Amino acid sequence: MSLNCNELNLILNEINLEGFFIQEIIQPTFDTITFRAFSCGVSKTVLICTGAQSCRINLITKKVPKNEKPLRFNEFLKSRILGSRINSIKQLGLDRIVKIELGHHGENGDENFILYARLWSGAANVILTDSDGNILDCMFRRPKKNEVTGGFFKPEEKTLTEDDRKIAEEKFPIRNFADFNFNDSNNQKEQLSFNEKIEKYYSESASNLSRENLLEQAKKWYSVKKSKMISALQNLESKQKEFSNAQKLKHTGDLILAFGAEANGNSIDCIDYEDGKPVHIRIDSSKSIHENAQIYYNQYKKAVSGTEALAHDIQMAQNKLKELELEYQKIISQTNVLKMEQLLRHDTTPKQKIEKAHPGLHYEIDGWTIIVGRTANENDELLRHTVKGSDMWLHARDYAGGYVFVKCQKNKSIPLEILLYAGNLAIYHSKARKNGSADLYYTQVKYLRRAKNGPKGLVIPTQEKNLFCKIDEAKLRRLDEYEKSAESI
């Protein structure tokens, strides 16, 4: 519930900010702004909140956390009113609009500003104007209401009669918070000012910026994210279990070679020389014994390779679960509600605003890392700061496009399957995509040299090899699924 008009007047009388100078401005959330004011050795921090059902202005005692990247309105206010003197602060009649008159001595002489805080649920805003009412900027820009830079905002102050005040007092009584537990004794509770009660009430359970509400949000976020991550981990473990019979595949191939002479059409019936038990093996009669055995050996190699890759992916998934648990504990152990809100909001940062370890796209496939540069700038940045000489470089031959890099691993050769994944990405991010196939250069980064006086990112390969590759939709789908699963983790 937002402050009513009588509560707002009581708060303004208690906080008494006239004559104070604004020394610090922090906007911890999109709908909240705070000012630290100072005068005669006394410092006060005032909060203005425009959140739905929690519109208010009051003093706060807890430290206000700063955003990693300051918000637009916060930076604008710092440039215009930091260091200003609060000449007056009052409510306009009973309209729940707080008018703060500010005086500022700048390079161009004395300047006067008016900061309006309209505390209406659903239509709240903080607006800075010059002394004539011309809008300089707003917390929320609303063109349809002309609440934009260059607009006009100068609400009239209605003269109130005694009858008006009496009616307002009866209709909008000041809350006594009789049912709210302030964690103080009754005597201490009675000694709290109304401002102190408001701060405790709103920080505990009254609004979307309350600890109770934020804990509920954190719990929901944690539950949803954890269930997705556990489901992904279970899928990996299920695949690992399927690959656990790799040795059995090799042994079957050995049995085919040992008892191939006893083949009868599409099957071989023999006695296992290891445990003495009868074995029935299905084979393809159109293939030779060696070819049938090779099928099982190939499955064995794939299973062994898949087991190693799955072990890597499982370890990564388990690490992400641990990180999630630590992040959740950090949020729920936080006592400052403004900091809690920031921690929760950090998780919802738009994907395009998340800082990356390097430019371009990043994939982890079967334990191998593939990086894609899509533009000349990304290609150049990756070559300068991310990849190393032993990493593999791929690029579509005779077509403009991005660079694809496969990070090397000590004492391991890059499997053909991984090269094909990288090749699909090289074609997809080039002009050859519409053809569905292309020849690719590939060589190690150390064999690239920059083209003299060439455009940014252009390189000339040496000791390159050729790889013909067709776009494989199944591979591209798996790469796309990887991106989605990485976002959920």
Please render the helix and strand layout as text.
Blueprint (H helix, E strand, L loop, with lengths): L4 H11 L5 E9 L2 E8 L2 E8 L6 E5 L11 H10 L3 E7 L5 E10 L2 E10 L6 E6 L4 E4 L23 H10 L14 H6 L2 H13 L4 H32 L3 H14 L7 E5 L6 E5 L6 H44 L4 H11 L13 E5 L2 E6 L2 H10 L6 E5 L6 E4 L9 H13 L8 E8 L3 E3 L8 E3 L3 E6 L2 H16 L1
Antiparallel strand pairs: 1-2, 2-3, 3-4, 5-6, 6-7, 7-8, 8-9, 10-11, 12-13, 13-15, 14-15, 14-16, 16-19, 17-18
Helix pairs in contact: 6-8, 6-9, 7-8
What does this protein structure show overall?
- 39% of the residues lie in helices and 24% in strands.
- It has helices at residues 5-15, 72-81, 162-171, 186-191, 194-206, 211-242, 246-259, 289-332, 337-347, 376-385, 416-428, 473-488; strands at residues 21-29, 32-39, 42-49, 56-60, 85-91, 97-106, 109-118, 125-130, 135-138, 267-271, 278-282, 361-365, 368-373, 392-396, 403-406, 437-444, 448-450, 459-461, 465-470.
- It has a 6-stranded antiparallel sheet. A 5-stranded antiparallel sheet has the order 5-6-7-8-9. A 4-stranded antiparallel sheet has the order 1-2-3-4.
- Helix 6 (211-242) packs antiparallel against helix 8 (289-332) and helix 7 (246-259) runs antiparallel to helix 8.
- The longest helix has 44 residues, at 289-332.
- The two termini are 36 Å apart.
- Mean pLDDT is 85; it is low at 348-354.
Category by helix and strand content:
alpha+beta
Number of helices: 12
What percentage of amino acids are in beta strands? 15-25%
Distance between the termini: 36 Å
Roughly how much helix do the residues carry, as a percent range? Answer: 25-40%
Nearest-integer average pLDDT: 85
How are the strands of the biggest sheet laid out side by side?
12-13-15-14-16-19
